[in-house]
Amino acid sequence: MWDRRGPCDPVHRCRYVGVSVVGNRPSGADRHTDTPTTGHATRNIGPRRRYIPPVPDRPLIHSKAPEGPTEDEVLLGTRPAPERVDDFRRGDPWRVFRIMGEFVEGFERLGDVADAVTFIGSSRTSPEDPLYGKATETARLLAEQGFPIITGGGPGIMEAANKGAVEGDGLSIGVNIELPHEQGTNPWVRRGVFFRFFFVRKMMLARYSRAVVAFPGGYGTLDELFEYLTLMQTGKMSIHPVVLFGARYWGPLVEWLQRTVAAEGKIDRQDLGLFHVTDDPAEAASIIVAAREQGKSWLVPG
User: Fold this and answer.
1) In sequence order, which residues have a C-beta less than 8 Å from that of residue 289 and are 6 or more positions away?
2) Is the distance from CB of 145 to CB of 289 less than 8 angstroms?
């Protein structure tokens, strides 16, 4: 049963009535401390116990810019001069094999993951920021309900969500990317995979999720958020929960979508119902738990 405010409310909330998040962990289970662990670990994920492979040792540091261009930069680079067209044609077909290899690696590493929740948000959010704690709490509540947690594997909101997954005895997944000035994998990731191409990484973030929690972030967060919304709007992905966490941050964007984008007919009014805004970790988790209980899934069998 829905308790929904009207679509003209600048902060559009949707709430499931009568659904609560159960935060109790199984008897005899110990809560993880704030000290990250490394190496092999076996964790209780729902009714099954899974072996979680160790993460490659990639320290959380800002790396120097690579000597050459990144793979994405090469792929999207300027078209060569006419005398080099033959070289260009020979190069791109072979690059397909590297792209294919990244897809294969991602599918192999994540193929057993189901019903996960993807967290997106700024890599610049510090542990002292209240949003860091909110992300940790939200992820912990969901992990305690049996949801694996997937992030981009870096610092900030990603680190906070991975930390919450570990504290909630859940599967903590990091899907990282090679960037000129970016970081290694955060210490709370328990299953990690590294990609060179953004579109492969974004595919993996979406492929194994049933829900998305978006915390305040920059261009990357907005890119990922609007891709999810576009896939649902166009029917490429079945409807699943998208939670925007932080009313003060997301409120102006929602208002613009209502008063400008929808008002001018660029999207339908019903498209404003594709997301929910909240400041409460328990409410965010309840929306996702309720959707699972009602059997809503965008994953297509096979």
Assistant:
1) 19, 21, 142, 145
2) yes
**Locate tokens 């969901």: which residue?**
142
Residue pLDDT, tens place only, 15-55: 333 333 333 444 344 434 444 444 444 444 444 434 344 44
Please state the domain count of the chain: 1
What are residue 24's phi and psi, to 5 degrees?
A: -75, 140
What domain range is 241 assigned to? 80-302
- DSSP, collapsed to helix, strand or coil, labels residue 148 as coil
- Judge residue 15's burial from the number of C-beta atoms within 10 Å of its C-beta, 0-12 exposed, 13-18 middle, 19 or more buried: middle
CA atoms within 13 A on the CB side of 182: 21
CA dihedral of 218, 221, 226, 232, whole degrees rounded to 10: -160
Summarised one tens digit per residue, pLDDT across range 250-276 is 999 999 999 999 999 999 999 999 999
Q: DSSP per residue over 16-82, as a string?
A: ETT-----PPPTTPPPP-SS---S-EEEEETTEEEEEPPPP---S-PPPPPSS--HHHHHT-PPPPG
pLDDT, residue 1, reads 38
CA distance 158 to 137: 13
Would you say residue 239 lies in a domain?
Answer: yes
The CATH number of residue 123's host domain is 3.40.50.450
Q: Is residue 16 in some structural domain?
A: no
The b-or-e profile of 237-251 (16+ CB within 10 A means b, else e) is beebbbbbbbbebbb
For residues 135 and 158, what is the distance between their CA atoms, to the nearest angstrom? 8
Model pLDDT, residue 107:
86
Distance (Å, whole) CA 193 – CA 79 = 31
Instruction: Tell me the C-alpha distance between 21 and 123, whole Å.
Output: 27
d(CA 86, CA 93): 12
